[in-house]
């Protein structure tokens, strides 16, 4: 082995070690920590579906609305938590929990979180955060650098400038998307002559002043539902988030996008923003960002990229190219609590132009005074924790090459799993992995052959039964609690765009090894045989 290879191997091993939990001390808190991090089995077992009238057993435990009149010892309460809450929580850190974007955390997060909570800094203003404010600004600078790769002079000039922001730290992708579109909206409908800008005069007067019949946000059908929430709170209206069809690779159809843009312009509806998705929630695909940037330029509108989940791919020199064109976006959303392995409550948006946030600037007398460096003057949220510290620490402890390994591992594991599914006669891959996410379903070989030779009604009938079978398997697997995949519905081109129920797998846990993936398939085959209705019905179809 060469020296560099040895180093790479050592780094990989230590990376795996950071996801393995050291022995917990013998105290209740220690035991709770151990439970949280080590109970890898039965994370969803005995899951009882909520019925309309009766409360589930778990709901029974939390059904008192009266506030306790007698105090309780902390140690007793800890035991109570252990019994009622911890033991009934979902063990998202399990290597066989591969259904969602919420995954394992490195062990160092737990002690660092205690430090962060203990210091209880409030990032809304410098008076309650001191060094935490420049620290958060540095984190935003690093993330801006990850996306836009500007030079030292650029960051020297803007990182700590009071009237500028390279981005905004917030609680997650939803608030990040709202913030990005808020900035876009206020810059579009800005102060102009007599008109004092939308921030002061509101949407009605703004549209009147500028003479628009309405505003629209354009995104592919795979766009995240948070964009609709954004359109709702920003007064644009959910129906004006226009979903554009996708191609057979689940990417936005640019021809249809241009047609829609022309149609809207003809109706005098101004396009507020074109939104590209870098890593869709359901299939993990990336829109053609360079083409979207061209189209946004053509229609002179804001270009936002929702890279809440996929943004961390930029850490990988090997796979960074998958997101090419992202550097042309006016704003980019990235969730640190997804592929950056930071606990929930860590999202951010970065802006290409550090001056663009002036459009959402707010001031108050006792804080956020003009010219102050209070972060609260450019954020939607008010009081905010020092969460950025956990991103800061992770960037230092894991470092860029460490993140690259985690990202590459996930992508390559998804490629491996896709191969496994393709080679197996009884499974059908439903979407090719581009990042570390894929979808598939169980279809016995005989039925696959039948499907390939039918169309129309019979095909629809078979797919309907397969949907039922997929749902049956997914629920059973969740209840068994040994492994977990999620399910979703996607349009599949080879079935005439019919909406098909599929298993959805996110391979984000570095401890998910290959044998787990084979076991997941084996378990699904076994569970399928337990279906007393759908599988037999399918097998008699000729
Ligand atoms: C997760 C996600 C969001 C929403 O982020 P939250 O952190 O859940 O608010 C938005 N867009 C995409 C593409 C996502 O994957």
Question: Can you tell me about this structure?
Answer:
It is a single chain. This protein has about 550 residues and is of the alpha/beta class. It has 4 domains: about 15-105; about 105-165 and about 355-395, no CATH class; about 175-335, Type I PLP-dependent aspartate aminotransferase-like (Major domain) (Aspartate Aminotransferase, domain 2); about 405-540, Aspartate Aminotransferase, domain 1, CATH 3.90.1150.10. Helix content is about 40%, strand content about 10%. The protein contains 17 helices and 11 strands. It has helices at about 5-15, 30-40, 55-60, 75-85, 110-120, 130-150, 150-160, 175-190, 200-210, 225-235, 255-265, 290-300, 390-425, 445-450, 455-480, 515-530, 535-540; strands spanning about 165-170, 215-220, 240-245, 270-275, 300-305, 330-335, 345-350, 425-430, 435-440, 485-490, 500-505. Helix 8 (about 175-190) crosses helix 10. It is globular, with a radius of gyration of 25 Å. The N and C termini lie far apart (about 55 Å).
């Amino acid at each position: 082995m060469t020296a560099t290879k040895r180093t790479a191997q050592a780094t990989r091993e230590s990376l795996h070690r950071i996801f393995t939990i050291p022995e917990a001390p013998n105290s209740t808190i220690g035991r709770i920590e151990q439970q949280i991090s080590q109970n890898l089995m039965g994370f969803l077992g005995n899951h009882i579906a909520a019925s309309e009238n009766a409360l589930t057993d778990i709901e029974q435990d939390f059904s008192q609305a009266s506030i306790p009149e007698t105090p309780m010892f902390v140690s007793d309460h800890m035991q109570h938590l252990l019994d009622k809450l911890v033991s009934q929580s979902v063990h998202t850190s399990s290597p066989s929990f591969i259904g969602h974007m919420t995954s394992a955390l490195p062990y160092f997060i737990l002690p660092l979180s205690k430090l962060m909570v203990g210091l209880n800094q409030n990032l809304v203003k410098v008076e309650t955060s001191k060094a935490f404010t420049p620290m958060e600004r540095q984190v935003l600078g690093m993330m801006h650098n990850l996306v836009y790769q500007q030079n030292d002079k650029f960051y020297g000039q803007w990182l700590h400038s009071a009237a500028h922001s390279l981005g905004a730290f917030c609680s997650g992708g939803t608030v990040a998307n709202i913030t990005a579109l808020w900035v876009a909206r206020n810059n579009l409908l800005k102060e102009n002559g007599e008109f004092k800008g939308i921030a002061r005069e509101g949407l009605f007067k703004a549209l009147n002043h500028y003479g628009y019949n309405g505003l629209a946000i354009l995104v592919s059908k795979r766009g995240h539902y948070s964009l609709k929430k954004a359109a709702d709170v920003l007064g644009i209206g959910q129906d004006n988030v226009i979903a554009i069809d996708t191609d057979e690779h689940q990417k936005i159809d640019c021809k249809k996008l241009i047609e829609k843009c022309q149609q809207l312009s003809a109706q005098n509806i101004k396009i507020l923003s074109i939104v590209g998705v870098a890593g869709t929630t359901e299939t993990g695909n990336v829109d053609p960002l360079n083409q979207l940037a061209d189209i946004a330029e053509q229609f002179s509108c804001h270009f936002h990229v929702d890279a809440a989940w996929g943004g961390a791919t930029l850490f990988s020199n090997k796979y960074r190219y998958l997101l090419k064109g992202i550097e042309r976006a006016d704003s980019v959303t990235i969730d640190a609590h997804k592929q950056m392995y930071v606990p929930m409550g860590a999202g951010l948006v970065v802006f290409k132009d550090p001056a663009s946030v002036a459009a959402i600037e707010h001031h108050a007398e006792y804080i956020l005074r003009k010219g102050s460096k209070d972060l609260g003057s450019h954020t939607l949220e008010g009081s905010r924790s020092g969460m950025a510290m956990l991103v800061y620490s992770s960037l230092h402890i894991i470092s860029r090459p460490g993140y690259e390994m985690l990202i590459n591992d996930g992508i390559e594991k998804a490629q491996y799993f896709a191969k496994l599914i393709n080679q197996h006669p009884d499974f059908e891959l439903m979407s090719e992995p581009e990042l570390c996410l894929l979808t598939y379903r169980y279809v016995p070989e005989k039925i696959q052959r039948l499907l390939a030779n039918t169309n129309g009604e019979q095909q629809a009938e078979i797919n309907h039964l397969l949907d039922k079978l997929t749902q049956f398997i997914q629920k059973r697997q969740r209840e068994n609690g040994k492994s977990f995949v999620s399910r979703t519905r996607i349009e599949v081109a080879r079935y005439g765009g019919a909406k098909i129920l599929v298993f959805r797998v996110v391979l984000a846990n570095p401890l998910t090894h290959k044998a787990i993936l084979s076991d997941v398939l084996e378990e699904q085959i076994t569970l399928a045989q337990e279906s007393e209705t759908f599988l037999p019905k399918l097998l008699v179809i000729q």
